[in-house]
Amino acid sequence: MERTASAVWNGGLKDGKGTVSTNSGVLNNTQYSFSTRFENGIGTNPEELIAAAHAGCFTMALSAQLGQANLTPESLETTAAVTFEKTDQGFTVTAIHLTTRAKVPGATSASFDTAAQNAKNGCPISRLFQGNTEISLDAKLV
Predict the structure, then answer these.
(1) Which terminus of the chain faces fewer neighbouring Cβ atoms within 10 Å, N or C?
(2) CATH label, 46-141, candidates 3.40.1180.10, 1.10.287.70, 3.30.300.20, 2.40.30.10
């Protein structure tokens, strides 16, 4: 399986602009620029897209882990916060914090915590960053 996305950039770093698109069409010439990455400009940026990918990946993995425990979630809501800062090596994603709130009928705190930790450690996006980036998790049943 292969998924594709593309980027086009025109101009210099600070005055240029670009677009990102995905093969699925979900992103179609979506704007990004220096100001969307380092300031508060309108558009997206690579770190925001990483956060969306990680939130989605973790949430699906959590659903799978709960299913393996014979639990069906009513709802799972996850936010991923990506920390992007300048280090000695240059700008780097240094941390990702996942916050999830879940309604899972029949789940105990222990069964939910186990599923959440397994999902955090096992989802492909988490594994992509393991060893390079601190990944933390705040997962609670509501």
Answers:
(1) N
(2) 3.30.300.20
